[in-house]
Design goal:
Length: 185
């Protein structure tokens, strides 16, 4: 993208700001794991990533280290189509689970960056990072993972966009058009 995509704006709000607001409406006090202080203006707790450059798995290990709760909702900031209703469902599902992670499954595979992780998975995720694992799903053999199948989450994504992230300028332009577009009568 050529820029920090977390700072890209849709309707005047950065992607990371949108994610923080959504999480705040659900959890009350989100924590952002980052390797930069660029997000300090959001007014949320910022924790420095223990493994900058190791991707989302390092950030997840950091989040679980600082967490004081059994279950932890972990989302990427570049998922602008997430909804409160979906995340409420995911949280409720996790609270009933005996797994270490509750992860939605898409046609392309797991969606590990919009999932619930139990604090008990911290040491195994940390061990994966220390062992050189970078891809989140490569840590799954160490965890008990419960998958939320598409038939369960599609009720929350009428257009199938729930897990569509912003990875390119075209994705960004599409998100701005869809989210910033006036409601159809």
């Amino acid at each position: 993208m050529g820029v920090d995509k977390a700072l890209l704006e849709i309707d005047g709000v950065s992607l990371i700001g949108r994610a923080a607001r959504l999480l705040q409406s659900i959890t009350g006090d989100p924590t952002i794991i980052a390797s930069t202080s660029l997000y300090s203006s959001l007014g949320t707790k910022i924790v420095t990533d223990d493994w900058p450059g190791h991707g989302p798995l390092g950030g997840m290990a950091t989040a679980l280290r600082v967490s004081q709760t059994p279950w932890n909702l972990i989302i990427a900031c570049d998922l602008p189509y997430l909804t409160k209703a979906w995340l409420d469902f995911l949280i409720e599902r996790a609270l009933k689970s005996k797994a270490d992670a509750v992860v939605p499954m898409n046609e392309r595979g797991p969606e590990p960056l919009c999932a619930m992780y139990h604090k008990s998975a911290e040491n195994r995720i940390r061990s994966a990072v220390e062992g050189g694992v970078h891809k989140v799903t490569d840590s799954f053999p160490r965890l008990r993972v419960e998958y939320v199948e598409p038939r369960e989450w599609k009720a929350f994504a009428s257009e199938g966009l729930l897990f569509k992230n912003v990875n390119s300028p075209a994705d960004y332009e599409e998100a701005k058009a869809r989210i910033g577009a006036p409601a159809k009568p």
